[in-house]
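Lecture notes, continued. The same structure-token format from the folding unit now serves as the input rather than the output. Read the line below as a description of shape only.
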């Protein structure tokens, strides 16, 4: 249940349009609903401003269909991350109104239009095309969380002139998410160019000595640029959630 729906329900009660018993029935699944395969946190939207997100990795299509069905029944928008194409096909058969992004590996279902609640732009910057799945996950997540989002792709340090052509865009952003593999240098470069918070996302892209993203992670953690924060390897979702909290309208 989102805050708007709860407000409408309480206003209807106050106006005598629904009974106390009807309101109690509607709130019966708060704070969570036991589905057998999961305990769905219907209260999360009220606490955090966004409904629970489903991690698609390691869940069966049948488990996710059960969870999505419960969310649909409660008028929640749906976001699934790390969803394999074969499982997405089954979800789309069950919920054809949903949308699957094969690059981001996300499934979204909007039961109500996503309202922009942010105070500015979140810019997702991707060092190389190989980093794009993680960057796309961040962009899709940030949009579902009610943010204006732009994407800047393939502007890594191997051709730094490509980034300098976009300095105006960089400096217009309220938050910059920077996704990079290999040595992970790009967040440091951008951190030295902008006043906005920079959230660095190391990816597992790279050759042997990159150690599956550990080299990029350590490089970002040791950035000499101020204002750079680092999330876990390949964690575009986590970066978007942090950026959305920074970018909320109600922050002073």
């Amino acid at each position: 249940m989102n805050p708007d729906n709860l407000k409408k329900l309480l206003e209807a009660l106050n106006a005598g349009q629904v009974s106390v018993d009807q309101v109690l029935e509607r709130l019966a699944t708060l704070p969570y609903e036991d589905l057998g395969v999961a305990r769905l946190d219907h209260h999360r939207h009220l606490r955090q401003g966004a409904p629970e997100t489903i991690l698609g990795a390691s869940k069966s299509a049948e488990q996710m269909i059960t969870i999505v069905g419960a969310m649909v029944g409660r008028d929640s928008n749906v976001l699934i991350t790390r969803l394999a194409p074969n499982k997405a096909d089954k979800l789309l058969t069950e919920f054809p109104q949903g949308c699957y992004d094969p690059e981001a590996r996300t499934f979204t279902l909007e039961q109500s239009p996503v309202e922009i609640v942010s105070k500015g732009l979140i810019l997702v910057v991707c060092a190389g095309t190989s980093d794009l799945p993680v960057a796309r996950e961040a962009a899709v997540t940030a949009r579902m969380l009610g943010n204006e989002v732009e994407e800047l792709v393939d502007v890594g340090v191997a051709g730094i002139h490509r980034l300098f052509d976009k300095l105006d865009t960089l400096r217009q952003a309220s938050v910059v998410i920077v996704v990079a593999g290999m040595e992970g240098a790009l967040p440091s470069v951008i951190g030295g160019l902008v006043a906005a918070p920079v959230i660095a996302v190391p990816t597992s892209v790279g050759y042997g000595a990159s150690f599956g993203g550990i080299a990029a992670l350590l490089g970002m953690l040791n950035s000499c640029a101020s204002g750079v924060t680092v999330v876990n390897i390949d964690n575009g979702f986590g970066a978007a959630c942090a950026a959305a909290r920074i970018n909320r309208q109600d922050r002073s």
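Point for the exam: The mean pLDDT is 88.
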